[in-house]
Amino acid sequence: MPAHMANGSCFLVFLCLVCSCDGTCPNMCLCLSDTVSCSSAGFTKFPTVLPTFSITVDLSHNYLSYLGAGSFEKMPRLENLCLAHNQLTSLGEGVFQNASGLRFLDLSSNKLHLVEQHYFHGLWRLEELLLFNNKITQVESGMLNGLSSLKKLYLSLNQLTNFPFFTIQDHTHPFLTMLDLSSNRLNNLPWEDIKALPSLVQRGLYLHNNSLTCNCAMYSMFWHWQLRNYETLKDFTDDHRCLIYGEMRATIKFLHHTRFFHNCTLEKAVSLPVTVYLSTVLVTEEDTISLDCQTSIKSTELSYTWLTPSKGYLTPATKNSSLITIFPNGTLEMQSVKVNDSGLYVCTAVSVKLGVNATREVNVTVSLPPPESFNTGYTTLLGCAITMILILMYLYLTPCRCSCCKQPKPPSVTTYDPSSLSSVFSSSIRENKPYNDKHVAFLEPMMSPEVSEEWTQES
Ligand SMILES: *[C@@H]1O[C@H](CO)[C@@H](O)[C@H](O)[C@H]1NC(C)=O
Ligand SMILES: *[C@@H]1O[C@H](CO)[C@@H](O)[C@H](O)[C@H]1NC(C)=O
Ligand SMILES: *[C@@H]1O[C@H](CO)[C@@H](O)[C@H](O)[C@H]1NC(C)=O
Ligand SMILES: *[C@@H]1O[C@H](CO)[C@@H](O)[C@H](O)[C@H]1NC(C)=O
Ligand SMILES: *[C@@H]1O[C@H](CO)[C@@H](O)[C@H](O)[C@H]1NC(C)=O
Ligand SMILES: *[C@@H]1O[C@H](CO)[C@@H](O)[C@H](O)[C@H]1NC(C)=O
Ligand SMILES: *[C@@H]1O[C@H](CO)[C@@H](O)[C@H](O)[C@H]1NC(C)=O
Ligand SMILES: *[C@@H]1O[C@H](CO)[C@@H](O)[C@H](O)[C@H]1NC(C)=O
Q: Is residue 75, in this structure, part of any structural domain at all?
């Protein structure tokens, strides 16, 4: 294990502060206000006494191999628990009993094999669950039951061959936006279940670096995601590989080499989220406006419909005024616009062939021309005067510099801020900030370059 992982460097900071340990702070730990750090304390067993009113507990980088029932039941305020880098192989029934306030739980880099359905029972406030870099081969289908606040679930770098996608539905997990299953051994996935996932989950589903079997059902799903420009694909295009005929040696980067899927009939999207670009146009009366209908759909055979505030629906066919034109590329042109033409213009581009549509919105504001008597020389002069006044105001009236107004931070942390948490628990998360939210493999660069060699092959 690299040395930097075991340092717990962020807690050096606490050494400088006055230690407010009461009788219940274990010897090897640092206790400060409601935070307890026992990182790298050499524990082989769960400490019997921990401060009762802790909100944040860090037990990372120890040698814990088992947690029994009710380990945290005497900590009713516990919200953040870090158990990363231990030797945990399983968790006892009821381990998080009476710890239902947990919001962040890090069990990454342990030796869990199986995620049993009782593990996270009752954690209805849990928002982030980190299980990456374990030895998990199976997730029991009840595992996600009741985790109704869950936002992010990290399961990458395990040995999963399947996942109970059907347990995730709009009403069961309304906040789930990230499901990282990358770098596992997923092969034949239930694509019908995946297609039925809430669109927020689909948007945040990471499946790269698995051993997916190339087939039309798989390709169809990725094709739709690509059409919707999902970041999950854009960021890892090269890592999306599938095995032809299920053979390990014949892998293709299927987001590049689409010819293998020419014979697939791509089903129409079930529910495509509409891409909306809102823009603003400011004109004066009698001007001509030209509004384009550029959307995310890359196709030439599109039909366009404009919904206008003053004239209702307009299509190239229903042209009833010489002042209005809709060009074949969707652009709407209106001559000599009036104030009452102001409002929201919505263009819908429909591709019948792809079975998708997307909209583009433009907020048009038509104002009256400025009064004649107000001549331009005067306007310029007035403009200069206002600028001068503003400069003077800036020079003399600027409030005092930040440093003197800054209020001292209250010493006790009452609200949980996930960004500060990452610095508390794992310094390596911070170092890789640009990737922070994208993929868990980037949180901890733990793979050696030679491991990935078998993946670079292409047929
Ligand atoms: C845990 O919760 C149960 C009921 O939910 C309660 O009966 C029990 O006393 C609690 N245990 C502790 C140690 O607080
Ligand atoms: C791909 O997954 C394997 C384990 O399945 C892992 O060892 C390797 O580092 C991963 N490669 C990338 C580029 O994420
Ligand atoms: C696609 O179909 C054609 C004829 O139906 C066949 O010759 C060809 O091999 C097929 N391509 C693939 C990649 O299966
Ligand atoms: C656009 O797609 C949505 C959902 O797929 C559908 O309900 C709607 O009728 C479509 N609109 C048009 C104009 O085709
Ligand atoms: C254009 O035709 C639509 C109906 O297709 C009608 O509601 C609208 O008033 C017409 N506009 C003008 C300027 O004639
Ligand atoms: C669409 O076509 C019109 C007329 O040919 C042209 O003026 C306009 O620039 C085009 N718009 C785009 C976005 O290509
Ligand atoms: C908008 O105003 C113009 C005159 O400025 C008038 O001729 C036209 O009927 C008005 N249209 C609507 C829909 O009110
Ligand atoms: C459009 O612009 C006007 C004025 O700038 C603003 O009041 C209005 O809220 C905007 N509408 C939308 C939908 O953004």
A: yes
Q: If DSSP codes are grouped into helix, strand and coil, which group holds residue 356?
A: strand
pLDDT tens, 259-311?
A: 788 777 665 544 454 555 667 788 888 889 999 888 777 777 888 999 888 88
Test site for ligand 1: of 98, 100, 121, 124, most ligand atoms within 8 A of the Cβ: 98
**Alpha carbon of 368 to ligand 3 centroid (Å):** 63
Number of domains in the chain: 3
Structural domain containing residue 88 = 24-210
Question: What does the pLDDT look like over 300-343, one tens digit per residue?
Answer: 788 899 988 888 888 887 766 778 889 888 899 998 899 989 98
Burial of 85 (0-12, 13-18, 19+ CB in 10 A): buried
Cβ–ligand 7 distance for 161 under 6 Å, the answer no
Question: What one-letter code names the amino acid at 389?
Answer: I
Q: Which of 309, 342, 367 is the last residue of a domain?
A: 367
- Secondary structure letter of residue 369 according to DSSP: P
Whole-prediction pTM: 0.56
* Amino acid in position 97: Q
Q: How far is the CA of 160 from the centre of ligand 2 (A)?
A: 13
Which range scores top for mean pLDDT: 94-98, 107-111, 394-398? Answer: 107-111
Measured from the CA of 318, which atom of ligand 5 is nearest? 5
Is any ligand 4 atom within 6 A of the Cβ of residue 31?
no
**Residues 147, 46: Cα–Cα separation, whole Å:** 25
Q: How far is CA 190 from CA 212, 301, 336, in A?
A: 11, 32, 56
> How many Å is the Cα radius of gyration of the chain?
29
For the CA of 441, the nearest atom of ligand 2: 14
Q: State the closest ligand 8 atom to the C-alpha of 278, by its place in the atom list counted from 1.
A: 14
Same domain, 168 and 40: yes
